[in-house]
Amino acid sequence: QTAVADAPAPDKEYTFAIIKPDAVEAGHADAIFAKLAEAGFRVAAQNEMTLSREQAEAFYGEHKDKPFFENLVTFMTSGPIKVLVLSAPDAIKAWRELIGPTNTEIARADKPESLRALFGTDQTANALHGSDSSSSAMREINFFFDGWAYDNMPAETNFAVITPE
Ligand code: UDP
């Protein structure tokens, strides 16, 4: 399968999100679902799970040489998460905007209305994940929802894209 990462902006786009263990544990999931709906996102698919160490290491593989990698994997496997496929116009960029800066302290200082400012804990436990590009969104959706993209993404989405060979 091949992906075209930079297709023209469509009316509807998909992104991948995680409600991380700190936010699930703190009971913030319902408030987060309310905020994302209010911001115009639709939940296209969701699942609740607890990541294995192998899954967390694979998902965050691009960070394996970073000093925070061990902390991140320990945190992400510490309890249940909710994995979501979200749709909206310009979903990838819009969701990154809504969640705000990676570090919760910076989010609280610079973007107090952002979801990480409202629901995060610190620079690791920051409540939410969001794909940073079209190619990441596709990889991440397929990582957690095997085959979902192939069955559900209409040709006019940014993943048009996913062309079975
Ligand atoms: N992270 C961390 N320490 C850092 C930077 C990142 O623990 O100094 C964690 C944090 O949970 C973040 C994740 O690693 O969300 C992935 O980092 P990335 O730089 O990709 O940030 P994101 O794209 O999630 O904002």
Automatic annotation (TrEMBL):
Active site, UniProt feature: H129 (pros-phosphohistidine intermediate)
Residue sites binding ATP per the record: K20, F68, R96, T102, R116, N126
Domain Nucleoside diphosphate kinase-like: 12-152
Superkingdom classification of source: Eukaryota
Membrane-crossing residue ranges in chain numbering: none
Family indicated by similarity: Belongs to the NDK family.
Name of the molecule in the record: Nucleoside diphosphate kinase-like domain-containing protein
UniProt source species: Monosiga brevicollis (Choanoflagellate)
Residues of the full protein shown: 166 to 330 of 631
